Task: inverse folding
């Protein structure tokens, strides 16, 4: 899944416009104008389309956590550090934190998308790489999660 699709999916789930999305970026110390966001939300091939790179989507996900859960006093945004390698596992983890989802919530969301997953498979996606039970989060898994998110009402 590419970063633009992810940004588009999350903004649709939360019914965010470009200005509200810009506010989320500001929470992660990454100010961006609503016009640039609107261009990132366009489909590839549309006039004005711009790519949302890894640094940008990481900042959005960090801002989303602050937006949904509040700014962390312990872990303020770190603007001078290079973001970690972005993987579907890390994206899933950040979305889980942002939406404050427990294991049962995740299983329910996956069932909304008709995606069969066991508790063990689910917990394996949140393990550290290198752990013997680590499981890579596939694009299909992440897409099913996003589809499941769209079935819930988020405030």
Result:
């Amino acid at each position: 899944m590419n970063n633009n699709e992810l940004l588009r999916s999350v903004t649709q789930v939360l019914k965010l416009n470009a200005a509200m999305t810009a506010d989320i970026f500001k929470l992660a110390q990454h100010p961006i104008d609503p016009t640039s966001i609107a261009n990132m939300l366009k489909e590839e091939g549309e006039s004005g389309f711009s790519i949302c790179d890894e640094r940008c989507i990481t900042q959005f996900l960090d801002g989303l956590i602050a937006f949904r859960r509040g700014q962390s006093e312990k872990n303020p945004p770190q603007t001078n550090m290079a973001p970690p390698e972005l993987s579907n596992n890390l994206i899933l983890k950040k979305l889980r934190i942002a939406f404050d989802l427990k294991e049962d919530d995740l299983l329910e969301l996956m069932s909304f998308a008709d995606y069969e997953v066991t508790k063990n498979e689910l917990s394996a996606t949140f393990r550290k790489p290198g752990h013997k039970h680590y499981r890579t989060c596939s694009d299909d898994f992440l897409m099913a999660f996003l589809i499941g998110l769209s079935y819930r009402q988020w405030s």
